[in-house]
Write a structure and sequence with these properties.
- The chain is of the alpha+beta class and about 150 residues long.
- The chain has one domain: Nuclear Transport Factor 2, Chain: A (Roll), CATH 3.10.450.50.
- It is about 30% helix and about 35% strand.
- A six-stranded mixed sheet has the order 2-1-6-5-4-3, covered by helices on one side.
- A hairpin with an 8-residue loop joins strand 1 (about 35-40) and strand 2.
């Protein structure tokens, strides 16, 4: 993709996305994305998708389920047409439970819109233990485990 934007233009686009999300403006959110937008979720490959209509469906559901949702762009840096961003999403779900996601989202911008993303935003959890417990889960062998790439 051609680098057709300066860093300030990319920052402005990200600001529009934050503002639209925090005001729960689904149309405003969707207008930040290209028609042929591509979402890749490397840690969960089946979650990837194409098209801004899926963006609309996702955000319509999220905003209905978390009516007080607020997002914060914690950090960002722009290199050409790529924006490396760190996010926090916070709110309360309809059932009263905490909604808290944090992570990195790497956007590619083209023609002034978000054209592609590598999405690493995850729910924050406190139940599965410390680093030793995490390494135990990662390295344990389990028949039929999902640690291997599909063939």
């Amino acid at each position: 993709m051609q680098n057709d934007l300066n860093p300030q233009s990319v920052s402005n686009l990200l600001g529009r996305l934050v503002d639209a999300t925090n005001t729960h403006d689904v149309d405003g959110i969707v207008q930040c994305f290209a028609e042929d937008y591509v979402n890749e979720t490397p840690a969960h490959p089946l979650r990837g998708f194409r098209g801004r209509e899926q963006v609309r469906r996702n955000w319509t559901r999220i905003l209905a389920a978390v009516p007080d949702l607020r997002v914060e762009l914690l950090k960002s840096t722009v290199d050409g047409n790529t924006a490396w961003t760190e996010w926090e999403h916070r709110g309360t779900r309809l059932d009263g439970s905490v909604h808290l996601l944090r992570g990195v989202v790497i956007f590619t911008v083209s023609a002034g819109l978000l054209a592609r993303v590598r999405f690493y935003l995850e729910e924050v959890e406190h139940a599965t233990g410390n680093m030793d417990a995490a390494i135990d889960r990662i390295v344990r062998s389990a028949p039929g485990g999902d640690l291997e790439e599909p063939s």
